[in-house]
Amino acid sequence: MNILDKIVLDKRKEVDLKKSIIPVSQLEASALFNRTTVSLADALRNSNSGIIAEHKRRSPSKSVINQNNSVTEVAVGYENAGACGMSVLTDGKYFGGSLDDLLLARASVQMPLLRKEFIIDEYQLLEAKAYGADVILLIAAILTRAEIKAFSEFAKQLHLDVLLEVHNEEELHKSIMPSLDMLGVNNRNLKSFEVSLDTSKNLSTLIPDDFVKVSESGISNIEAIRELKPYGYLGFLIGENFMKTDNPGESALNFIKSIK
Ligand SMILES: O=C(O)c1ccccc1NCC(=O)[C@H](O)[C@H](O)COP(=O)(O)O
Q1: Which position among 56, 87, 171, 175 bears the catalytic label?
Q2: Phi/psi of residue 238, each to 5°?
């Protein structure tokens, strides 16, 4: 069984349990539920750097990355660094994140926040809104076309931006639809965990211009950004490269300064 299958299996149990504990009405009644959201796609269109900086404590590919810096400190550091947006991993079992991380980030910054999660149920979109997200991630590898359509249309009703993630041509063809805002190409092969920017380069011409293109994973230097920009990428999702340092905000600042 590959890692995504394992994560999804656990996620189904987790979501079923949560649905039995916290009713939708409670999520909809939360103080953040009716706030005005901010568009990450717009922020990327208007940015020079396009950096979406991620909060990531650990991962299946790297084990522990950072257990020291608080999410608040990281969020404020990223915003001060000039990041376009922040990705907050909310999966607990595999990434050490939580919805409380999202809530804490929301309380500290104004920039668009992406709930980085393995979404398999509309309930998780309501959670995303209730805990302060502006953007949700949909992963083509774990969803049918019908699910992508239903979840992305529901996200739009909630005024959330949608980032759809693909790993290959087949996933891309299955997923293209007007209710998506951004198309993310994940450079990490989830079977071998190897990363290659060639994945972003090879898929770029197949992504229609209506979508903001985002390259995800394995971006560890400025040269990668210089290589990817000519392929039309406006967004660059970076986690480990910032989080592995003692001061993720300062690392993001130095990175972003050298792009401009
Ligand atoms: O990062 C992993 O090991 C991983 C394994 C299985 C599913 C997803 C995984 N990562 C999620 C992400 O998409 C990355 O955290 C994100 O793109 C940032 O990547 P990086 O800059 O390489 O930390």
Answers
A1: 56
A2: -125, 125
List pLDDT tens digits, range 15-67. 999 999 999 999 999 999 999 999 999 999 999 899 999 999 999 988 899 99
Q: Is the ipTM of this complex over 0.95?
A: yes
* 79, 117, 127, 165: the active-site residue: 165
* From 52, 55, 58, 59, mutation site for ligand 1 pocket: most ligand atoms within 8 A of C-beta: 59
Q: Is 217 a catalytic residue?
A: yes
Fold assignment, 3-259: TIM Barrel (3.20.20)
> For 117-154, how does the pLDDT look when each residue is reduced to its tens digit (9 = 90+)?
999 999 999 999 999 999 999 999 999 999 999 999 99
SS3 per residue for 101-136 = HHHHHHHHCCCCEEEECCCCCCHHHHHHHHCCCCEE
